[in-house]
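Hi V.,

Quick status before I head out on leave. The structure for the redesign project is tokenized and pasted below; the design run finished overnight.
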């Protein structure tokens, strides 16, 4: 009966009697649900809420003992084009403008049909998160976002993904959606023609089989799987990993086992300013407001206006420590608006000195090089010369004393390649046919951030694919499953 570790053949005798923790109340006698969501991240909870609201019985299984996915780590910024918050701020925007921005940033890739789908859903997604899921979101106007021609990202007041998740958890709880922690999906159930459930393990005890009309893979990408990174996304192999531990790429193996197509596997979101040893992101706002990135010789290596993700392709090739250099005004302005940076500064991650020579001494880097670099950058910021790296946006620069620096490294945040899906998030085979019963969303699905590398990533692409595709998948799988369930009793009745 069993074929591969990724696929288990379901049999008519298979019972669904053993229940994973948290699902006991589901039906009382078995663990057969309309829609089973694998992964309790932003994508998974958005799916679950949307599917529930379509009338489906939904359950979520999560392999970790608590909420610990990338959505928790994120800044919680969600793009929405044409929202009422943009209108209130006098910003003209719509799906067509967003789509054009996304295409410009990403260039050609293997998932282009999804660009219009996600641009179109984005505005209604943000309004759904606030009006239906009950989240508190506002338009972010303080800083520019990579890839966006207008302010379009919306986030919780704290700008923390943990608060976004708290809102989604409240919405799921208020609907009575069970989320079973410590339940690792290990294999898909296959009835010979479609996916019909998932095999789940809670520990050494025997696996539990959960039957479902639709399975939604919301397991994120493969950033935490070194072998898959080396295979599909080799440029990131030496980067620090700043993402969640659960992103181990199971959806890729399961998808391949049912003949799915993969797309954009070499694409990723990098971050060029991951503070070390603190393990927190030193927000790119520091650079947008005028900061520069230097190496141990005190020299810059590129145009910081490229943004944190694209710049990671440059910084990732430099060996040795790197530093973000800014000034006390920029530190204070940023700390006042972004809690995570304030925490980094409070934990000693923002070293201050009266002048470039003293700063170089504190960082143990070349003082002559750093002085020359800051002189040149200051001249470029004042318009007295062309910047050697072509930078034109200088924020509050030229930098002024006292100067501040953060030691940084290049990091992988999350991978952008995954399972190819259609406009309803249904998993596709190479010939374009749909794998029955199987959906993929968020980091498990192919992204829209270019074919390879980190330059194609527009800010917000991660949560757009998680929450936007999650909303689409939840609605589609939820309504299909609820209709199928409603038809069942009638069909049974007609035979008796
Ligand atoms: C530091 C950081 C900052 C970011 N900031 C932003 C931002 O501001 N805006 C933006 O758009 N994007 C941002 N991103 C990217 C964004 O966080 C991700 O793209 C997005 O959260 C992915 O959502 P997800 O639901 O697919 O994954 P996750 O939130 O990681 O959820 C996946 C869940 O699935 C679980 N799981 C995995 N495998 C299994 C299994 N076999 N069985 C059961 N459960 C399983 C995992 O444990 C996890 O809980 C950021 C990323 C990082 C790391």
């Amino acid at each position: 009966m069993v074929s591969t570790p990724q696929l288990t053949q379901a049999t008519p005798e298979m019972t669904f009697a053993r229940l994973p923790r948290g699902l006991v109340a589901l039906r009382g006698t078995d663990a057969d649900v309309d829609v089973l969501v694998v992964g309790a991240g932003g994508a998974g909870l958005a799916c679950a809420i949307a599917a529930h609201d379509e009338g489906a019985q939904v359950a979520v299984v999560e392999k970790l003992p608590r909420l610990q996915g990338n959505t928790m780590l994120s800044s919680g910024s969600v793009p929405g084009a044409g929202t009422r918050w943009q209108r209130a701020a006098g910003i003209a925007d719509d799906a067509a403008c967003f789509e054009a921005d996304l295409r410009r940033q990403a260039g050609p890739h293997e998932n282009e049909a999804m660009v219009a789908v996600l641009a179109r859903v984005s505005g209604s997604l943000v309004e759904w998160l606030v009006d239906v899921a009950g989240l508190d979101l506002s338009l972010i106007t303080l800083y520019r976002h990579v890839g966006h021609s207008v302010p379009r990202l919306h986030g919780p007041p704290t700008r923390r993904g943990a608060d976004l998740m708290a809102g989604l958890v409240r919405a799921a709880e208020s609907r009575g959606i069970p989320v079973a922690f410590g339940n690792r999906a290990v294999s898909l159930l296959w009835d010979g023609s479609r996916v019909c459930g998932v095999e789940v393990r809670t520990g050494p005890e025997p696996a539990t089989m959960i039957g479902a009309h639709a399975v939604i893979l919301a397991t994120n990408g493969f950033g935490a799987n070194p072998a898959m990174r080396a295979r599909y996304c080799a440029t990131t192999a030496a980067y620090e990993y700043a993402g969640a531990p659960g992103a181990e790429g199971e959806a890729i193996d399961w998808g391949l086992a049912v003949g799915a197509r993969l797309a954009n596997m070499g694409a990723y979101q990098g971050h060029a300013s991951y503070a070390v040893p603190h393990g927190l992101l030193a927000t790119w706002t520091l650079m947008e407001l005028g900061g520069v990135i230097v190496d141990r010789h005190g020299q810059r290596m590129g145009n910081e206006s490229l943004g944190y993700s694209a710049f990671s392709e440059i910084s990732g090739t430099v060996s040795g420590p790197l530093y973000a250099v800014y000034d006390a005004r920029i530190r204070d302005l940023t700390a006042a608006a972004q809690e995570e940076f304030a925490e980094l500064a409070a934990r000693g991650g923002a070293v201050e000195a009266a002048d470039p020579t003293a700063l170089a001494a504190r960082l143990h880097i070349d003082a002559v090089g750093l002085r020359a670099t800051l002189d040149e950058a200051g001249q470029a910021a004042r318009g007295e010369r062309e910047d050697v790296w072509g930078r034109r946006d200088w924020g509050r620069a030229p930098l002024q004393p006292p100067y501040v620096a953060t030691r940084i490294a290049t990091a992988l945040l999350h991978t952008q390649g995954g399972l190819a899906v259609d406009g309803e998030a249904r998993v596709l085979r190479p010939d374009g046919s749909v794998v029955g019963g199987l959906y993929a969303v968020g980091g498990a699905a192919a992204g829209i951030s270019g074919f390879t590398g980190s330059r194609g990533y527009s800010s917000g692409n991660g949560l757009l694919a998680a929450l936007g595709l999650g909303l689409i998948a939840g609605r589609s799988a939820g309504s299909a499953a609820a209709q199928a369930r409603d038809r069942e009793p009638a069909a049974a009745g007609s035979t008796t």
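Above is the designed sequence. Residues 286 and 330 are 6 Å apart (CA to CA).

G. will cover questions while I'm gone.

Best,
W.
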